[in-house]
Amino acid sequence: MKKEFVVIGLGRFGGSICRALSDQDMEVMAIDKDEDRVNEYATIASHAVVADTTDEATLKSLGIRNFDHVIVAIGDDIQSSILTTLMLKEIGVNNITVKAQNDYHEKVLRKIGADHVVHPERDMGKRIAHNIISNSVLDYLELSDEHSIVEIAANNHLLSGKSLIDLDVRARYGLNIVAIKRGNDIIVSPQANEVIHHEDILIVIGADTDINRFEKKAMSS
Amino acid sequence: MKKEFVVIGLGRFGGSICRALSDQDMEVMAIDKDEDRVNEYATIASHAVVADTTDEATLKSLGIRNFDHVIVAIGDDIQSSILTTLMLKEIGVNNITVKAQNDYHEKVLRKIGADHVVHPERDMGKRIAHNIISNSVLDYLELSDEHSIVEIAANNHLLSGKSLIDLDVRARYGLNIVAIKRGNDIIVSPQANEVIHHEDILIVIGADTDINRFEKKAMSS
Ligand SMILES: Nc1ncnc2c1ncn2[C@@H]1O[C@H](COP(=O)(O)OP(=O)(O)OP(=O)(O)O)[C@@H](O)[C@H]1O
Ligand SMILES: Nc1ncnc2c1ncn2[C@@H]1O[C@H](COP(=O)(O)OP(=O)(O)OP(=O)(O)O)[C@@H](O)[C@H]1O
Ligand SMILES: [Ca+2]
Ligand SMILES: [Ca+2]
Ligand SMILES: [Ca+2]
Ligand SMILES: [Ca+2]
């Protein structure tokens, strides 16, 4: 059975969730009190409804209880966000994800029973700071506080033209190259004799300290 | 030499960048026209300045030209964002990253010479939609349009208690398990006889279609 979602608040964040869920063929009911925003999503979501979700009767009449997951993406109006969440909880919605504007907002949301609280701007700020500090780390997945998988650009004379044996990052840095991205291809578990191209992107797993060491060394000069 | 950054606009997004850069011991000059916001970052950033960055004389007097990278995190006031970017470019700043509110905003920013344009709410919406659709995929790194590395929770009787040979995801799904996250440990390149624990998180690389297939199969019943 298809999962059914409700997205409340069609700003940039809520709108993007609505679009991404719809792209994956999910059933999505999109709600905003602003008619223009609702019209924007009329052809994207399965249903698009103009409604003020702080009104309990409205929420009930929409049958929101029957949906699998409700995302509250109301931002600036913290009071509406809290009130909407409270009412969703009372109606008996199983799974509620709410965007928080700050730590205080998060605290209240958790108290009243939000299942997941997200801070999109804060989290993306962190990610982008990461990318900005390093010229060579293009993207990353944080595995733990101390370990990551990172994408490292090989466009550097210390990397390109070398084989994986030449580099021997395992012995020298304790790192593993789990894949090489070459154009549209992904070479998983590359062989030791694989030669790195200038345009390659290395997918590397290891401790953050080792990754930093490798990055500094590989990128120096 | 330490890299020096300027962050203009201390909302949630800009504030988070400022904090993350400062956490990594970078030199950061934090600027906002709102005094309260500047005060919030006075002890976090190296310098915190109240200034309207649409004023050219102000920008020049701050010596912004000498910084390595300027991040413009002004959101709602699109005109200020564009004007600030334009002036940074004219002053001769080398590296400018700007937050865009929509596609039109991005287009203008690129035309006037912004080096990087980011859409934090939109990107995070996509990420969170991904996480919401799947109960077992905890986090992911998009390698290409068709390949990803994903974190899959093993808390499922079809996975836990099995060895990697039992599962044989390579033959059956074309996937590779590049690591296992077990509490605070990361087991990189796990052996074939490694037995999966109920609390493990598998780090899996492969084609998205294969990952979806594996996830559906592993998670069914
Ligand atoms: N009570 C409510 N019922 C329904 N929709 C609401 C309610 N209150 C606010 N909204 C809607 O929530 C949406 C998101 O509000 P917000 O102020 O966070 O917008 P935004 O700044 O564009 O968000 P973003 O940070 O995602 O870009 C708006 O479209 C607004 O109309
Ligand atoms: N011309 C300007 N000069 C300096 N700072 C500015 C200027 N215009 C706006 N700002 C500041 O930019 C910051 C970010 O503005 P924005 O409206 O995007 O806030 P926000 O909605 O809190 O952002 P976020 O989406 O990151 O949560 C504000 O603190 C604002 O004072
Ligand atoms: Ca993670
Ligand atoms: Ca806003
Ligand atoms: Ca925002
Ligand atoms: Ca990526």
UniProtKB/TrEMBL annotation, chains A, B:
PROSITE patterns assigned: RCK_C, RCK_N
Bilayer-crossing regions: none
Domain RCK C-terminal intervals: 135-220
GO BP terms, alphabetized: potassium ion transport
Protein name per its UniProtKB record: TrkA family potassium uptake protein
Pfam families: TrkA_C, TrkA_N
Sequence ranges assigned to domain RCK N-terminal in this UniProt record: 2-118
Gene Ontology MF term list: monoatomic cation transmembrane transporter activity
